[in-house]
């Protein structure tokens, strides 16, 4: 059931799987889920929240950085930077690289 669920929806979390199994009357831990999936050749990965930059965007950022590299610190005091973090988990068959653009592995 675990592998079948993950095959249908790779973004299924360990918590979702634990809850599904508890509803079916089986008590398992998140560690058991991870171990089972790893034995089936799957590994846990996280998806990037944003797509990779296109070359035109890289050049625009580089141009901006060069133009403002000599700006005094006082110019940057009123700049607000917003850092966004978040992880989307998914399961990937070991050696399967299809559809992994923009993904980075959490487990080697």
UniProtKB/TrEMBL annotation:
The chain positions of domain Transposase Tc1-like read 1-69
User: How is this protein named in the record?
Assistant: Transposase Tc1-like domain-containing protein
Its Gene Ontology molecular function terms? DNA binding
InterPro entries the record matches: RNaseH_sf, Transposase_Tc1-like, WH-like_DNA-bd_sf
GO BP term (any one): DNA transposition
